[in-house]
């Protein structure tokens, strides 16, 4: 159902009514030319701000999206997005004084990526909020709200991507045809899009590269017209991914030439192209393949976006000063986010560090800028690597410090003398002369990412294994042979197998890609200035042998919701330096909602933040996340913590794609993790369960 017409759409209709066909066509490409006679300036729609304003000079580089998901802190995500929007507006205000709008200098952002990270081999998983539809929905919606603001005008415009059913393989994205079962289509792949449209009023949706049941996503009447427009009620702007229309006649072979591709996309509901195919729209119009009515409809939607951003009048955002870029407040927020994202996987009591006289940082991620930043990043002003952050903390505490890269990320170092390698020797000496070793291993965005960008990936951006490279495992063996205590810190945007490292380490930390303050955040956790409180937003599998074929878009056997094997580390898991106890669980109705509550007590010695998670048992699959809340507790403090679950919005999808809200006797679980045996073994306790009649 169409929403009530806005004043912005009315203004757009009036402006477009004065334009010629050629002028309207020109406005449907991402680099829109000026129309001087109507006072329309140039505008380029292409910008990126996945975790900070990207590719436009200096900006605050926040933790990567996967990292932010690990915080399980929705208000924090909204605050981060608001800071990004402020920096984006400030840059736009200054850039347009100097020159016409250019790529990466505008206010329409190709963000957030709310695809489901269904397979850990997919290189772009780091850009998402993880594998769970509910977590992705909530984090995505808060990010959209932060970017757009809550006033009459949008501060910036968020662009939900990639619509839809897009999560690898990268090597086949220009030709692949995704055909998920309807239950999985509606129950997994589309949920976050619907949620962000309904709860956050996202302004733009970007179509994916792949096909969808035979139709290209960017030219699918079923996907754009029926599902997005009719079923979800989306009334905003629909755009392509970059050069995606080339695939209509290229990879997908759906049309014979660019003219037919241009016509097919427009007639299917696409309204703006990132690329060059729509330079052929005039020919398509001349050949009668598209109507002026369709061109006008798209142009109106395009200009509604620009009016909504206040680009044709004075707004309160025009006065945001450039001084907000990389300001102290944003850096403090950034550091808080990085601290909150650290996931402690193992700890035998060595952390937080005490009574250490000499400390060594060893490993390829010890001083890697790339692994701080993740992909689609800006240029940080004051980046702090693990080496820099830990060195500073050691200096402050009077602790001796050693450093060695130990090895390259992937490639063996050539032997200089036929016996050993220089880097490995240096690492062993650093370990031998220290009381403990911080072993910084993992991946970087060259090893996992987007097709054509991740230059060191084995399969065009994706991973073909969950094992860390052999040179890093050899480094582990050499350091373990010294007998010195090892604290392994893994930095990666996705799941890797850590069992080999866990066996040789006294503690294991998962950092993901923590942003420019990552080194400071790590040092704060190691030395006890921050109690780790991050939780895994993805399942850590033991090997690719646990997974179905990446081309299979059925959710069977994927993610914690449908995985029947034993994970290495489960979704929702993470340790603390303190301990939390749950008691007296209860459930009660509150209108259309069920409120699940329990007493949560900090029974340990340290203050800490607990992520209380609520799961619901549905007719199929494992119990799945239905809500969460983060609570700070002092030692000995007890609080009643509640999670509210809407009945009408909680349920399952049948084989026909129809939604079934929970009803009858429904079992909920509440605790600091999901209700599975591995989480219980790792934490030492089971979640509490409570049943309630979900019907009114």
Question: What's this entry about, in short?
Answer:
This protein is α/β, with parallel strands linked by helices. It has 21 helices and 24 strands.
Characterization of the model:
This protein is of the alpha/beta class. It has three domains: 1-38 and 157-308, TIM Barrel (Alpha-Beta Barrel); 342-556, 3-Layer(aba) Sandwich (Rossmann fold), CATH 3.40.50; 580-693, Immunoglobulin-like (Sandwich). Helices cover 30% and strands 18% of the residues. The strands form seven sheets. It has a six-stranded mixed sheet with strand order 10-15-14-13-11-12, sandwiched between helices. Helix 4 (74-98) packs parallel to helix 5 (133-148) and helix 15 (386-397) crosses helix 19.
What key attributes describe this structure?
21 helices; Immunoglobulin-like; 6-stranded mixed β-sheet; 696 residues; 4-stranded parallel β-sheet; alpha/beta
Number of helices: 21
Total domain count: 3
Superfamily at the CATH H level of the largest domain? Glycoside hydrolase family 3 C-terminal domain
| Gross morphology | globular
CATH class of the largest domain reads Alpha Beta
Q: Please tell me the CATH architecture of the largest domain by its name.
A: 3-Layer(aba) Sandwich
Q: What percent of residues adopt helix (DSSP H or I)?
A: 25-40%
The N- and C-terminal alpha carbons lie at a distance of: 28 Å
Work out the strand percent: 15-25%
The count of strands amounts to 24
Radius of gyration: 26 Å
Low-confidence stretches: none
Mean pLDDT: 96
Structural class from helices and strands?
alpha/beta
């Amino acid at each position: 159902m169409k929403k009530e017409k806005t004043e912005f759409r009315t203004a757009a209709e009036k402006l477009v009514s004065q334009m010629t066909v050629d002028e309207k066509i020109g406005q449907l490409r991402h680099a829109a030319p000026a129309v001087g006679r109507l006072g329309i300036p140039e505008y380029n729609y292409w910008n990126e701000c996945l975790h900070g304003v990207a590719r436009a000079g200096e900006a605050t580089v926040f933790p990567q999206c996967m990292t932010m998901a690990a915080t399980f802190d929705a208000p924090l995500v909204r605050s981060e997005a608001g800071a990004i929007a402020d920096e984006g507006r400030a840059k736009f205000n200054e850039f347009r004084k100097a020159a016409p709008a250019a790529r990466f200098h505008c206010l329409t952002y190709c963000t957030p990526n709310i695809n489901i990270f269904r397979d850990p081999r997919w290189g772009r998983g780091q850009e998402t909020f993880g594998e769970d539809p509910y977590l992705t929905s909530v984090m995505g919606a808060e990010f959209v709200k932060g970017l757009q603001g809550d006033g009459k005008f949008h501060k910036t415009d968020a662009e939900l991507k990639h619509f839809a059913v897009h999560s690898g393989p990268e090597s086949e994205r220009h030709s692949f045809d995704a055909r998920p079962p309807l239950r999985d289509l509606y129950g997994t792949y589309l949920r976050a899009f619907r949620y962000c449209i309904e709860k956050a009023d996202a302004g733009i949706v970007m179509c994916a590269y792949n096909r969808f049941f035979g139709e290209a996503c960017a030219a699918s009447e079923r996907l754009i017209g029926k599902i997005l427009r009719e079923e979800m009620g989306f009334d905003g702007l629909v755009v392509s991914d970059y050069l995606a229309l080339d695939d209509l006649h290229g990879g997908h072979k759906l049309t014979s030439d660019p003219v037919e591709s241009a016509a097919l996309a427009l007639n299917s509901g696409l309204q703006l192209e990132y690329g060059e195919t729509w330079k052929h729209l005039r020919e398509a119009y001349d050949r009668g393949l598209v109507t002026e009515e369709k061109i006008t409809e798209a142009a109106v939607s395009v200009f509604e976006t620009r009016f909504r951003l206040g680009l044709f009048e004075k707004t309160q955002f025009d006065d945001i000063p450039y001084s907000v870029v990389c300001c102290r407040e944003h850096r403090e927020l950034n550091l808080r986010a990085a601290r909150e994202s650290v996931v402690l996987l193992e700890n035998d009591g060595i952390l937080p560090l005490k009574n250490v006289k000499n400390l060594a940082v060893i490993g390829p991620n010890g001083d890697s800028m790339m692994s701080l930043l993740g992909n689609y990043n800006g240029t940080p002003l004051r980046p702090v690597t693990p080496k820099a952050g830990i060195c500073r903390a050691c200096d402050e505490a009077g602790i001796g410090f050693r450093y060695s890269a130990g090895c390259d990320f992937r490639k063996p170092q050539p032997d200089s003398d036929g016996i050993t390698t220089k880097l490995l020797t240096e690492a062993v000496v650093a370990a031998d002369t220290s009381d403990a070793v911080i072993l910084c291993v993992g991946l970087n965005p060259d090893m996992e990412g987007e097709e054509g960008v991740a230059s060191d990936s084995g399969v065009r951006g994706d991973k073909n294994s969950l094992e860390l490279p052999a040179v890093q495992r050899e480094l582990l063996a050499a350091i373990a042979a010294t007998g010195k205590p090892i604290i392994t810190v893994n930095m990666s945007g996705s799941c890797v197998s850590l069992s080999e490292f866990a066996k040789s380490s006294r503690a294991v930390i998962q950092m993901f890609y923590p942003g420019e303050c990552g080194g400071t955040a790590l040092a704060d956790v190691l030395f006890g200035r921050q109690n780790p409180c991050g939780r895994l937003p993805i399942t850590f599998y033991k090997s690719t042998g646990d997974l179905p074929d990446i081309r299979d878009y059925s959710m069977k056997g994927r993610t914690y919701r449908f995985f029947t094997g034993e994970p290495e580390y489960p979704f929702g898991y993470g340790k603390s330096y303190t301990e939390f106890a749950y008691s007296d669980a209860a459930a009660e109705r509150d209108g259309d909602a069920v409120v699940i509550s329990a007493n949560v007590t900090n029974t340990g010695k340290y203050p800490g933040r607990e992520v209380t998670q609520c799961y619901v048992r549905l007719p199929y699959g494992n119990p799945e996340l239905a809500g969460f809340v983060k609570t700070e507790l002092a030692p000995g403090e007890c609080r009643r913590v509640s999670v509210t679950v809407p009945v009408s919005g909680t349920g399952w999808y049948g084989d026909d794609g129809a939604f079934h809200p929970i009803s009858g006797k429904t079992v909920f679980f509440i605790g600091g993790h999901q209700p599975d045996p591995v989480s219980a073994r790792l934490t030492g306790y089971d979640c509490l369960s409570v049943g309630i009649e979900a019907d009114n």
